[in-house]
Write a structure and sequence with these properties.
By secondary structure, the chain is an alpha/beta fold. The chain has 6 helices and 7 strands; from the N terminus they run βαβααβββαβαβα.
Length: about 170
């Protein structure tokens, strides 16, 4: 019998889960990946706080564990709320990858006027560095965010460097 590991369907979530499944396999534990769609994946045109905040990517996976549909889930730590539902624990944390943020842009840096980010922390950091910039809401998985940069919806976007590294992406910045 193999463990059923739940994850979101984004490229980054799948890479992270494949890494965990590989680590389990190295220890002789069979595991299969079960992809689950969350409210955060489907409601991409509204700010996260409008659909439940930080736990919006975690809730559907938590519910699947509680219903017995999966045995465990793989998340990014930034998505896990401090208060966990009764009966669930965070049982393992992998070694942290780069904690740095990455500013991706395509033109000259001094031409950047509009920065995309969905993170309140990143918004504050950008505005502290340059209060004349406009920081616009940017939702979607990494591929969607990069596409919006290429389309010119933003002059620059803020991303987690660790996510780019896990996906093997190199962006100008």
């Amino acid at each position: 019998m193999s463990l059923r590991i739940g994850t979101r369907g984004s490229a980054l979530a799948l890479v992270q889960t494949e890494n965990v499944v590989g680590m389990l396999a190295d220890r002789g534990i069979e595991a299969e990946i079960i992809t689950i769609t969350t409210a955060g994946d489907t409601a991409t045109h509204v700010p996260l706080h409008a659909i439940g905040g930080q736990g919006v990517f975690v809730r559907a996976l938590d519910d699947a564990i509680l219903r017995g549909e999966i045995d465990a889930a793989v998340h990014s730590m930034k998505d896990i709320p401090a208060a966990r539902p009764a009966g669930l624990t965070c049982s393992a944390v992998l070694e942290r990858d780069s904690p740095a943020d990455f500013l991706a842009y395509e033109g000259p840096l001094d031409a950047v006027r509009i920065v995309g980010s969905s993170s309140t922390r990143r918004r504050a950091q950008v505005l502290r560095a340059d209060p004349t910039l406009e920081v616009k809401q940017l939702r979607g998985n990494v591929d969607t965010r990069i596409r919006k940069l290429h389309e010119g919806q933003y002059d620059a976007i803020m991303l987690a460097e660790a996510g780019l590294q896990r996906l093997g992406l190199q962006l100008p910045g």
